[in-house]
Known about the structure:
Blueprint: E1 2-7, H1 10-15, E2 19-23, H2 30-40, E3 52-55, E4 58-59, E5 71-75
Parallel strand pairs: 1-5
Antiparallel strand pairs: 1-2, 3-4, 3-5
Amino acid sequence: MQIRVQFYSQLRDLAGCQTLDVDLDQGATVADLLEQLYREMPPLRAHGQTILIGAGVEFVERDYVIKPGDEISIMPPVQGG
């Protein structure tokens, strides 16, 4: 299945793009997607423990099973000050 991934803030700079279409196997999880992205974009791995993942308008965990048509957002943690 093909999904669209959107990168935000400094993660967009590390990825080198704002959006990316990714092919995944049926039943793939967010963790599977992240591993694929880390292989293709190694600088993202350094942020792996802190990034937030959204599917549609909801935040999801790494074990979330991605559905066809999901739009996945990859964001840095919210910072305030």
